[in-house]
Design brief:
With 162 residues, the chain is mainly α. It has helices spanning 5-13, 25-33, 36-42, 45-68, 80-89, 97-113, 118-124, 127-152. Helix 5 packs across helix 6, helix 5 packs parallel to helix 8 (127-152) and helix 6 crosses helix 8 (127-152).
Length: 162
């Protein structure tokens, strides 16, 4: 089966259908990012950053096109933004189960609760950039908390040998 342009947009926006989960689609979308973290890290930190940046641009474009096809702003089924937000959350962190788990929990809480400044970004910025921007800020804030944790404690455990 060959997908047409509209089907490709839906497939990418929903991360292969994860965003169509009946409950907690954002959580399922974030789960879709988990295998990308070690895959991107395998290429080294510069590859991780480049691949994440590329995916952020793709997410913004796809979210914009998806919205322009008659959908509301930031529809629940669009979860590519959760993927890129989680990739940002895991940037420069050790690949440990503790890092994966803590970043997952903190990122999901920030994304769901939308504290300042995430809430302002979510309300004020429209289009594909707006869909992705609030998740990027949630990812950045998660990363800052976990970088401080990593520097000041041993709570994030030992790096996995990848």
């Amino acid at each position: 089966m060959v997908l047409d342009r509209k089907q490709w947009i839906v497939w990418i926006a929903t991360v292969g259908g994860l965003g169509k989960a009946p409950k907690a689609p954002g959580t399922f979308g974030t789960l879709g990012a988990l295998p990308l973290v070690p895959l991107f890290a395998w290429g080294g930190e510069y590859f991780y950053m480049a691949a994440t940046f590329f995916l952020i641009v793709v997410a913004m474009v796809v979210a914009h096109i998806y919205e322009s096809q008659g959908h509301d702003h930031d529809p629940k089924e669009v979860v590519i933004d959760e993927v890129v937000g989680y990739l940002v959350a895991m940037l420069w962190l050790p690949l440990t189960w503790q890092s994966f788990a803590l970043s997952f929990v903190i990122f999901r809480l920030l994304d769901a609760l939308k504290p300042f400044p995430i809430s302002v970004i979510d309300r004020k910025i429209k289009g594909g950039v707006g869909v992705v921007a609030d998740d990027l800020v949630a990812g950045i804030l998660t990363n800052i908390v976990l970088q401080a944790t990593y520097l000041k404690t041993d709570w994030l455990g030992q790096q996995l040998g990848l």
